[in-house]
Amino acid sequence: MSWLRALKETTRSGLKVERHRLEPLFALRATVGLALVVSSTLALAGPEAAVSSAFGAFQAAIATFQRSWRPRPVLALASGTTLAITTFLGYLAGAHLAVFITLLAVWTFVAGLCWALGPTVGVIASSNVAMVLVTVTLPTTVAEAAGHAFVIFLGGLVQAALIVLFPIRRWGAQRDALADALAAEADYARRLRHDPTAPFDPAPLMAAREAAVVTARQARTRPSELHGARGLAERIRPVLASLADPAVGAADEGRERDRVRELLAAAGEILDTAARAIRHGEPVALPPGAVAALRTPDTGAILTGPAARAARRLAALLDDVVETATPDTGAAAPRTVLERLALVLRGKSPELSLPARRLKLSSAESARAVQSDTRPIPLIRPGVQALGPRAARTLRDELKVTGSPYLRHAIRVTAVVVLGYVLGHFLPFGHGYWAPLASVMVMRPDFSQTYGRAVARFGGTIVGVTLASVVVFATEPGVPLSVTLAIICAGLMYLLLRTGYVVGQVLVAAYIVFLLGTIGADVGQTVYERVLLTLLGGVLAMISYAVYPAWETPRLRTKLADWLVADGRYAAAVVHQYAEPAGPGEVRQALLDSRAARIAWQDALKRAATEPVRHRGLSRAAADGAGEALAQIARIGMLMEAHLPERGATPVPAAARLADALRESADQGAKAVRERRVPDWKPVRECLENWDGEGVPDRVVLRGARLLLDALEELSDALEPAPPR
User: Fold this and answer.
1) 640 partner at 20 to 30 Å CA-CA among 359, 485, 550, 568?
2) Coil/strand/helix, residue 92
3) Which of 34, 41, 42 minimizes the C-alpha distance to 64?
4) pLDDT, averaged in runs of 10, over the chain (725 residues)
5) Strand duo 379-380 + 213-214: pairing
6) What is the CATH classification number for the domain harbouring 618?
7) pLDDT the model gives residue 360
8) Is residue 297 within 8 Å of residue 347, measured between CB atoms?
9) Burial status of residue 313 (CB atoms within 10 A of its CB: 0-12, 13-18, 19 or more)
10) 10 Å Cβ neighbour count for 119?
11) In-domain check, residue 711
12) Which parts of the sequence belong to the Integral membrane bound transporter domain (predicted)?
């Protein structure tokens, strides 16, 4: 992509405004917290303290709107506490230019490196640098500096207290993540009716897993319907795929295919119903049509072999999903209906009413599909005390990584902020902090966000400052009215935060103009200097990325190689289970690693698409073809996982040799990809040729192995260099 086109694309993304579901109650609570803090400090300590408290409460509320699975009060307290500490240090160093610039450089570097800990930490750290640049300009003594730091902390404390006292939709983010995962599988089931090999994006399942990781305190209070459903969703996906795929499931056409389509449609309806129930915390209201379709007693006569096995597993899993998704209110009707449904598809009488969990099932697949009575062991997230050492280790490791994008971002943002502050200090404008403030707020580790946000910030600043200045000149507000207008702007920003960065910048610019007006800032000067210095900060940020970039495009081959290794190990782990049925394995962890590598590849490919960099050995067509081949490898592994042999089944010795060949070939293939060579799969091919000679009559594992080889060959074909024209 050329620079001109890249600039057009990033400008368009930066100025984009989207329709998004508004959350007025959350915005109202944050606005009330801001109003309480500002009005109290204004009455007790005067305008300067009110401005400091306003920045603390404002930033603490912003932190609670970030996408994080941490409790919102923790985010508000973390933001308020870190801002108070850094602001106090800034106050102490503010009287000495060299000392303050040194402190600013150190803190900016750490804040830039904090993006390695996640976007939420990165946003909080970068916002702290921006707020320090603003608040440190307020005249103060050391004693007053401590007072200002305290009211900043008080702002975060008030926001955290309001969240605790007035909770809105408890566990809402976790409910949404789990409901989105079930809804994604419902959509997948419907698409499988028309395309038996339809792709599935595992991102909703990964988000649901992240949401399911809780602290020890959260594990004791988590609603019952958020226990276990994610694990069931994970197990349903391969069952749906294996039921639909003609390679290991029902035939392409005929009665079997018609019956599979009915089961998939019914599964989609029930999963959608369970998703709605979890999202709103309501009992599951089963759709009668779907229940009737699943209760058809002739399923066992129509489906045979792996397809029948998958149908039985699907029935048991849907039974558990409905039971898990229903809040613990004593209602037993939904559970009873699907218990009878599961009995029907297991070949039992529809009149039996014994709970499915109490049946003495003989088949291992039914036993795996039914949960135990014990509550699932929760995934525990480290507490706040354990985060410090872990974060320190992560940051230390980033300093040692050659070419780390986070390290390059830290160096880049530090240089820009220091340079911007020095230029702003010596330029004859006053309030020179606006240049570095604009830089630190727009700069991100990747190119597209940095350029898009720079354009949006400049445009939003012009509009916001102009509108606020018109209001000030027309009304000449005093301190109370200025504070009121600032709070209104903040409230609108909270409400419209997710609609687009440019919208937020319009309101933030107006908020700062009104807020600084309470301490006597000259509005006429504010308009002129803020626009020019914001432009300067944005230009510095954009130039810095062009001069010292961290392009994603050259790293695409590395990301692709990582995905190949992860997929190969996942497929090998699944195949090895056929050699040692129900033996110790690493299928689950290998699956998670494969998904993480896939998401990393997709994110890298998305970022690279907007970069003004040539493909450097991996064209867009090659990247797309290779991605499809690797997704196919993961799908085949998933199909084979759905039919893993039960404990005590006859081992398949050739499967162990195939698993070793897959691991070896994946490692060697990844090395070839990194070195811009075409991978060769000779070990896998030879293993299959010898396997065919043994005559092992296992339909699933043998067909799956052949499909794996086909997918690997497709990967090599995609990476073949294009013939010269």
Assistant:
1) 359
2) helix
3) 34
4) 81 83 90 92 84 86 86 89 88 83 92 90 89 70 83 91 90 89 92 88 88 81 80 86 79 81 89 89 81 68 77 83 70 41 41 31 38 55 76 87 87 94 83 85 88 88 86 83 91 91 90 80 63 87 89 89 93 87 76 91 88 77 90 89 78 84 92 90 85 53 85 90 64
5) parallel
6) 1.20.58
7) 32
8) no
9) buried
10) 14
11) yes
12) 420-543
Q: Which pair of tokens denotes residue 331? A: 């209602």
Exposure string over 663-677, b if 16+ CB within 10 A, otherwise e: bebbebbbebbeeee
Distance between CA atoms of residues 628 and 439, nearest Å: 39
DSSP type of residue 213:
E
DSSP β-bridge partners for residue 379: 213
- 374 exposed, middle or buried (CB, 10 Å; 0-12, 13-18, 19+)? exposed
Closest CA to 357 of 317, 327, 329: 317
d(CA 235, CA 214): 21
Number of domains in the chain: 3
pTM summary value: 0.82
d(CA 504, CA 467): 14
Q: Classify the C-alpha dihedral 60-62-64-66 as positive or negative.
A: negative
Rounded to a whole number of angstroms, the CA Rg of the chain reads 29
**How many other β-carbons are positioned within 10 Å of the β-carbon of residue 594?**
25
Is position 144 within any domain? yes
Kindly state whether residue 68 falls inside one of the protein's structural domains: yes
Q: What is the model's pLDDT at position 370? A: 38
The CA–CA distances, whole Å, from 511 to 110, 224, 491, 518, 522 equal 28, 43, 10, 11, 15
Residue type (1 letter), 349: S
Tokens encoding 148: 């200002």
**Which H, E and C letters describe 255-311, residue by residue?**
HHHHHHHHHHHHHHHHHHHHHHHHHHCCCCCCCHHHHHHHCCCCHHHHCCHHHHHHH
357 class by beta-carbon count within 10 Å (0-12 exposed, 13-18 middle, 19+ buried): middle
State how far the Cα of 40 lies from the Cα of 231, in Å rounded to an integer: 48
Rounded Cα distance, 170 and 176, in Å: 11
Q: What range does the domain containing 267 cover?
A: 186-198+210-222+228-374
User: CA dist 404 to 113, 310, 542, Å?
Assistant: 10, 45, 19
| Exposure class string for 512-546: b at 16+ Cβ within 10 A, else e | bbbbbbbbebebeebbebbbebbbbbbbbbbebbe
Residue position matching structure tokens 């064209």:
619
Question: And the tokens for 640?
Answer: 């084979």
For residues 349 and 420, state if they share a domain: no
User: 588 and 695, same structural domain?
Assistant: yes
Q: Which residue, 158, 18, 134, 50, is CA-closest to 487?
A: 50
396 CB burial (10 A radius; 0-12, 13-18, 19+): exposed
Q: State how far Cα 79 lies from the chain centre.
A: 21
Helix (H, G, I), strand (E, B) or coil at 586: coil
Domain boundary among the residues 355, 374, 393 is at 374
> What is d(CA 519, CA 38) in angstroms, rounded to the nearest whole number?
13
Please tell me whether residues 142 and 26 are part of one structural domain: yes
Q: Alpha carbon of 700 to those of 211, 230, 263: distances in Å?
A: 34, 26, 21
Task: Specify whether 564 is located in the same domain as 698.
Answer: yes
Domain boundary among 514, 532, 547: 547
What does the alpha-carbon distance between residue 54 and residue 487 come to, in Å, rounded to a whole number? 9
The count of other CB atoms within 10 Å of the CB of residue 496 is 17
Amino acid at 551: W
From the list 355, 236, 337, the residue with the least C-alpha distance to 288 is 337
Contacts of residue 190, Cβ cutoff 8 Å, sequence gap at least 6: 264, 265, 268
